[in-house]
Amino acid sequence: MAYQAGGQWPAPRPVPEGREAQAYLQDYATLLEAVPFPSLVVDHRWDVVLANGAFRSLFRGVGPHPTAMPADNFLRFVLFHPDAGTVLAEHEPRWCLPMLAHFKAAVERYAHDAGLQAIRRDIAQDPIMEAAYRQGLPHWIRAMGEAAAEHDGAVRPLLHPDPRWGATDCRLVDETPRALHAMGYTRLTLVLRDPRRPAAAARRPRPRRPRGAVTHLTVVPTPES
């Protein structure tokens, strides 16, 4: 799904063939909408198949982008959207590097997937992102361990636009039922924590990058530096 001008979120992506599969996803979308926490269903490329109202509310303040809207492809949003750090706190170490690790594993598994290869080309066009992928990521995995890239159970910081939440943390929970798994989909829910808990210390959003900026990461030096 892509965010359109005027705040309209279009209908879910085409579903797998078969009336039963379509009916299941329609009913699952109803279930998802009843969940109070941000929740989404993605495929192996992180193309968003379904997202609920809480997810849309979390990212309501991000500006338009031709390829990296959160309800279009969440991986692209994390890596390439200049506003990602205004919602995903500690954006580079806590969100980008785990997503890059997940992307690397997906590319190795689906080597000929055109969508993943397109993301790989976009990474290569950003010198610092490419340095992070080739040099910083292997070092990060060695230092943190393979489990650091695991999404299920990870606790990551957020800056919610709703002042009732504000600076908080969320636990990513994989809630994929068998039927979704059989379709090649994964469901993740961001379980928001009470911002009064000590773990949700005050955080400042990363400044928005200029719209013309090419580089999206700063923590990993380029090979020349």
Condensed summary:
Helices cover 36% and strands 12% of the residues.
Structural description of this entry:
There is one protein chain. This protein is α+β, with helices and mostly antiparallel strands and 225 residues long. It has a single domain, classed as Beta-Lactamase. The chain has 7 helices and 5 strands. Helix 4 packs across helix 6.
Percent of sequence in beta strands: 5-15%
Return the CATH class.
Answer: Alpha Beta
Strand order, main sheet: write it out. Answer: 2-1-5-4-3
Radius of gyration: 17 Å
> How many separate structural domains?
1
Assembly form of the protein: single chain
Question: Helicity, in percent?
Answer: 25-40%
The average pLDDT is 85
Distance between the termini: 39 Å
Q: Estimate the global geometry from the Cα principal axes.
A: globular
The computed structural class is alpha+beta
The third-level CATH topology is Beta-Lactamase
Instruction: Please provide the ordered H/E string of secondary-structure elements.
Output: HEEHHHHHEEHE
Please, how many helices? Answer: 7
Low-pLDDT residue intervals, each spanning 5 or more residues: 1-12, 221-225
Main sheet characteristics: 5 strands, antiparallel
